[in-house]
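Please, structure for the following, as tokens.
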Amino acid sequence: MRVKRYEGLFILNSNLTSTGKDDGVTVALEKISKEIEAAGGKVEGTQKMEKRNFSRIADKKYNSGFYVNVLFSSPGSALAALKHKFALNEDVFRVLFTIAPPPKEEKAK
């Protein structure tokens, strides 16, 4: 089983903070990490980005979303199962997986 590094761009629903809690994105990110690990992957890092308005509105209920970038390593066979799980997750509006570039080697001083 060959493991590759992937970058997942997640657009989370903008209603995560509508309950008055700012930690909705953090909770959703923890669930995403657990799903990746359950599929045999290992999360290497996450990057929260800001909330952005959509230039094209696909669903009138959602006109913006929180963008999160997740770097992880996983067997390629697990991607289809992850896409299916995230499609059923009500916190995830969209997800896109791409192959991540190799890690940069740090130069010794």
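The chain has a mean pLDDT of 87. Residues 24-38 form the longest helix (15 residues).
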